[in-house]
Amino acid sequence: MDLEIDIEGWPDGDWSDLAERAAAAAAAVAPELANPRLVASLLFTSDKRVRDLNREWRDKDRPTNVLSFPMVERVDLIHLDPHEGPPQMLGDIALAYETCAREAAAKGIALADHAAHLVVHGFLHLAGHDHETGETDAEAMERLEVKALASMGVADPYSATDRDTDHDKG
């Protein structure tokens, strides 16, 4: 998968490397993401920008930690020929700095670990996984996230934290 990464308003750090590693970890647990024809955009930005996106595309006038905008239906993604055809836009992901930083501080974890979780979470949404469709789907998505994050050396975000962290799919 080819990533287009923009970083605006986040502190110094290797956010591009983190995004690449999180995308690879997500592809390891959701192989449909490993298709070389896929292109995805990832925006590390401000609460204000995410709030604007959330309002425009989801009619929710508030920031959130991560937004995902899938551009391929899961069935089409699974059957996408990896060798023939032009690049295929998988979708967009946006992370809001202030919300992510506040959540990481409240959980007592590193911002980079929380951001890695949210990037993995966003990619799983782009792959068609959805925790909002029922408890079984939520548990399956959480298992994939935990496995992907473990491969990055990031602790299970669900082990001792609340499950009310807000993730949105656009």
Strand residues, percent = 15-25%
Report how far apart the termini are: 21 Å
What Rg do the Cα atoms give? 15 Å
Task: Kindly give the count of domains.
Answer: 1
Quick tags:
five-stranded mixed β-sheet, 5 strands, alpha/beta, Collagenase (Catalytic Domain), 45% helix, 170 residues, single chain
Q: If you had to describe this structure to a student in words, what would you say it looks like?
A:
Zn(2+) binds at residues 121, 125, 131. It comes from Aurantiacibacter spongiae. InterPro entries: MetalPrtase_cat_dom_sf_prd (IPR023091), YbeY (IPR002036), YbeY_CS (IPR020549). One of its GO terms (molecular function) is metalloendopeptidase activity. By secondary structure, the chain is of the alpha/beta class. It has one domain: Metalloproteases ("zincins"), catalytic domain (Collagenase (Catalytic Domain)). 45% of the residues lie in helices and 18% in strands. The chain contains 6 helices and 5 strands; from the N terminus they run E-H-E-H-E-H-E-H-H-H-E. Strands 1-2-4-3-5 form a 5-stranded mixed beta sheet, sandwiched between helices. The protein is globular.
